[in-house]
Design a protein that fits this description.
The protein folds into 2 domains: about 130 residues, Rossmann fold, CATH 3.40.50.720; about 180 residues, NAD(P)-binding Rossmann-like Domain (Rossmann fold), CATH 3.40.50.720. About 35% of the residues lie in helices and about 15% in strands. It is built from 11 helices and 12 strands. The strands form 2 sheets. The protein has a 7-stranded parallel beta sheet, with helices on both faces. Strands 2-1-3-4-5 form a 5-stranded parallel beta sheet, sandwiched between helices. Strand 4, helix 4 and strand 5 form a beta-alpha-beta unit. The protein is elongated.
Amino acid sequence: MSKPVVLVTASTVSDLAQRLLREGGLEPVFMEDRVTEPALREALARHRPVAVLMRSSPPFNAGVIESAKGLKIIAKHGAGVDSVDIAAATRCGIAVMVTSGANANAVAEHSLALMLALSRDLARYDRETRKGQWRNLDALQRDFSARTVGIIGYGQIGERTAKLAAACGAPVIVHSRSAKNLPEGMRLEADLNRLLETADIISLHCPLTPQTRGLIGAAQFARMKPDALLINTARGPVVDEAALVAALKEGRIAGAGLDTMTTEPPGPDHPLYALPNVILTPHIAAVTTDAIVRMGTIAAANITAWLRGEVHDPRNFLNPEVRP
C-alpha cells in the first residue's frame, strides 16, 4: 500500500526533514522544475498529497487550493505566506503553518551585513581596489554607531535585527503596531513619516499585505535624508521599485541593499543592476545551513503532528479556525 504523499515545492529539503516525514509514514515527492501555477496544479492532481511542504512562494491562490483534493495542510518552509490565500485554505479546511522564528537569526544577520557593507561602501572599494585604485580617501564614511537605524516591523526578525544594530552601537528607533517594552536604548516611533525623516538607515521587516504593498514609494523617499540607506530583506513589493530607482539616480537617498525584489529573478536588464550604490543578493537572507535545517525540521514536525490530530506549535498556526 502506497504511503500518503507530501509534495515539496522544490527539488530538495534537509535530510533530517525527509527522515522525519518518512518516520511519520509519509513519502516526500519533489518538484524539480520551476513551480508555476500550471505545474503546481498538475503536481497536486497527479500526486494528491495530504500535505505540502512549501519552499519559496508558489502561487497557492484560491483556484489552486480548491483544486487540491485531499490536501490537509500547507506547511511553509519559512515565514512568508503572501502567496497563499489563507481565507481560501480556511474555507477548504486546510491548515496553514509557518516555521516561526526558524530563520530569524539568519535574516537579521544578513540585514546587518547589508547595513554595514553599504555604510562603509564596501562594494565600491572592492571594485576600485581590483582596478588598482588604492586607498581612495575622497569618500570617507561615518561610523556605523553614528547612524540611527530605523526598523519598520518588529516581529522576530525585526526584533533581532534591532538588537544586532544596537549591539554595534547604533541608536535604534522602531515603527510597529505591536512592539512593547523595547530594550533600553531603543525607542518606539508611532509616526512612520517621522521615522523616515530621522533614520540614517531604514530596514524593512514587515510582511507583505495589502496595507504594506508599496509602503515605501516616492512620497516616502522624499522624506528620507539624502544620505539615507534602505535595506529590504522582507518582500520586494513593499518597495515601489520604480520610485526606488528614481530616488537612487537622483540622489534623494544614498544607497540600497536588497535581498528581495518585486519579480524574482529579475530580468537581465533591470535598472537596479546598473546602479553602483546598490547591493543585491538573490533572496538568500534566510539560507544558512543552520536555518535550512531548522526550517525543514519544524515544517516536517508541523505536518506530522497535524496529520496525527495535533498542533506542533500554536505559534506556527495561521488559521486556527481549522481543526485537525
